[in-house]
Amino acid sequence: MTAKVIDGKAFAANVRAQVAAHVAKLKEEHGIQPGLAVVLVGEDPASQVYVRNKHASTIEVGMASFEHRLPVDTAEADLLALVKSLNADPKVHGILVQLPLPSHLNSELIINTIDPAKDVDGFHISNVGLLGTGQKSMVPCTPLGCLMMLRDHHGSLAGLNAVVVGRSNIVGKPMAQLLLGDSCTVTIAHSRTKDLAAVCRGADILVAAVGRPEMLTGDYVKPGATVIDVGINRIERDGKAKLVGDVHYASAAAVAGAITPVPGGVGPMTIACLLANALTACCRANGLPEPEGLTA
Ligand code: NDP
Q: Whose CA is nearest to atom 28 of ligand 1?
C-alpha cells in the first residue's frame, strides 16, 4: 500500500484563505479588524523566525499585527504589565507570548495572566480546563490543525481507535482531548509505555508527537491507518541539514492509508490555526457568529 499524502501546505493555504475572506467580511459589514499581538522576549533564533512568519501571515490575511520585541533581561513585572495592557486593548483580540521564555521568567504566571478570551495559543489554565470538560475554549493551534486534517480526511472520527504518542501540554494532551471530543477511543502513549509498537499498531489514527527523529517506523503502523506526524527534528544526513518528523516516512508510508509529510504536513497548519483562533476570538469578543469549520 502507498499512503495518500495529506498536503498540509495546501490545507493551510485554504484555511488562511477562509480566514482572509472572513476578515474582509468583518471589516466590510461591521467595521471590525481582528488584531493579533505577539510578544517575543530575547533573541532565540528559532523563535525569531516563528515570530517573523506569524507577523507576515497575520498581515497577509488582513488582520492587524502588533509585535512586541523585548530584551532578554526583561523584568517579569514589565512583561506582566505589557500582557495586562494588551488584555485591556480593544484593538487586540489575540495575544501570543512566544515560548520558551528566558529562564528567569515564570512562563505559567505569564501565560495565566493573558485574558483567556485572547489566549490564542490555548495554554491558559482556564482554556485547558474548558477543553478537558468539553466546553467552548481556545484550542492549542498544532492539535487543532491535526484535527482539521483528520476531519477532512475521515469525515466522522467516531469510534476510531486513536493513539497519541507524547503527553506534552502543548501537543499530546490537547490532541487526545480533541480526539476524545470527536468520539475516538483514545490511548495516550509516552516514554513509559510498554510495547509501544504493538500499542501503535492498534491505531486507526496514529499521532506522533515525540520529538525523536524518525522513531515510529512502518512496524508501528496498522495497514491503512492515518498517520499524523507532528515532529519537527533538525538532523544532519550526508553532510546536509535536513528536517524530519517523528515518523520514518518511507517505511510508514508503505503501510499507512494516509500520512502527513515533514516538512509540509502539520507545520504549516500551526500558524494557519493561530490566525483562525485570532479570528474566532474577535468574533466572540464582538458577539458575532464564529467562522464555521475553523474551530474545534
Ligand atoms: P515534548 O518533549 O514536550 O514531549 C515529548 C513526549 O514524547 C513526552 O510525553 C515523552 O514522554 C514522549 N516520548 C519521548 N520519548 C519517547 C519514547 N522513546 N517512546 C514514547 N514516548 C516518548 O515534545 P512536544 O510535545 O513539545 O513536541 C513533540 C514534537 O512535536 C517535537 O518534535 C516538536 O518539535 C514537534 N512540534 C511541532 C509543532 C508544529 O508546529 N508542527 C508544534 C509543537 C511541537 P514522557 O512524558 O514520558 O517523557
A: 209
